[in-house]
Every structure is written in C-alpha cells, then in structure tokens.
Design a protein that fits this description.
With 115 residues, chain A is mainly β. Chain A has no helices and 11 strands. In chain A, the strands form 2 sheets. In chain A, strands 2, 4, 5, 9, 10 and 11 form a 6-stranded mixed beta sheet that branches. In chain A, strands 1-3-8-7-6 form a 5-stranded antiparallel beta sheet, with no helix packed on it. Chain B is built from no helices and 11 strands. In chain B, the strands form 2 sheets. In chain B, strands 2, 4, 5, 6, 9, 10 and 11 form a 7-stranded mixed beta sheet that branches. The chains are: A mainly beta (115), B mainly beta (113). The A-B interface holds A 31-32, 34, 36, 42-46, 49, 51, 89, 91, 93, 96, 99-108 and B 2, 33, 42-45, 48, 54-58, 90, 92, 97-107.
Amino acid sequence: ILNVEQSPQSLHVQEGDSTNFTCSFPSSNFYALHWYRWETAKSPEALFVMTLNGDEKKKGRISATLNTKEGYSYLYIKGSQPEDSATYLCAFIKRRETSGSRLTFGEGTQLTVNP
Amino acid sequence: DSGVTQTPKHLITATGQRVTLRCSPRSGDLSVYWYQQSLDQGLQFLIQYYNGEERAKGNILERFSAQQFPDLHSELNLSSLELGDSALYFCASTPGGPSYEQYFGPGTRLTVT
C-alpha cells in the first residue's frame, strides 16, 4: 500500500495571505506527481504534472516544487483569494510495472480563504 | 467544461441490482481512468484503459468491471450492488499515460438503497 500524505488537512487564511502545503510520497520508484484543485460540487481540475526532481511549475499565483529524492512536493499560493478556496489533492504515480501505473491520491488539503 | 461527459448524472437503485455508468473522453484522448469517491474515503483509483486495453487496476472490486469500446467511450459496470457502493464515480481522460494531465468528467452520483 502506497502512503501519500498531505498536510495540513485543512487551512484557513485571510485574503491576501500566501500559503503552502505539502504532499509526501514514497521516494523510491517515482514516476510522476499530479496536483489537482477540487472545488465543492465540481470535479477535480488539473494544476500540474511533475516528473523530474527539482521541477518547479507555475500557473498564475500558484506554483509547485518537487523533490523526488526526499519524497515531497510543495504547493504555494501567493496572495490567496476567496476563489482559491478548494481542496488541493496530490496524486503519486509509481514507476510503471508490468501491470501499468496507478494513481494514489492523498486525502487533500482543504483551503478556505476568508475575505 | 473539461470536454469529458458522463451519464447519468444521478442514479438511484436498490441493493442487488446492476448498473452501467458511461464516460465519453475528450476528443482525441485515448486513455480513460475511473475513480470512486465515497463519503468516508478520498478519491480511489479503480481502473485505467488505453485505446481499448486495460492498462492498470486499482482498488476495483470483483463485482465491478469496465471496458473501453472502439469509439473510445468507456463503461463501468457495477453488479450485486451493496449500500457501501453508494459514491460519486468519476472518469477522467488523457491523451496518453500518467505523465499527462487528467481531465475529469462531472461524475455520476450513485445511491444504493
């Protein structure tokens, strides 16, 4: 059983604050890490797919870094806005085996941004 | 709108019954993934198909089966339904394998009574 952990479980910040959360995953047999944003009553929306150690990706005010050697990824949100309120999920993919690759999701970090 | 469609949106059925959930991927996407989200659990990967062939299997029960057709739409069949099968079922599509972003459909809410 693969262990993908996200912390914190939930976070409340004020509008304008910058924030970050963590996804921890097994450091061996790494293939890829996905980040998704999931708003209530909607479906998950892809943010980033990260495959290389040291990867840094950015989309607007949201960015992510990846450390495959130590098994963690950080997601940063600069200047949080109320519309950033959502659950942020990471998904780990182990190096392809004969049976293919499966995604293991973390439980998510629930972010609430107060106006 | 991700371009992935799922039908039906809601389904209410009784224990012991069988249902089929349908997913049409984005145009050009060859790979379809199925996920289950129960009330007390996070998003669980069930199964992946690529161009008609099963590629990866997750926590899919033996009572569940899936297939991907030549036109690339996929169906998830759930049989001998139990109360615990009540969940939101998502499908997602990508052009290829797991290094691509996944585009999720709106989900099918299944309620077993």
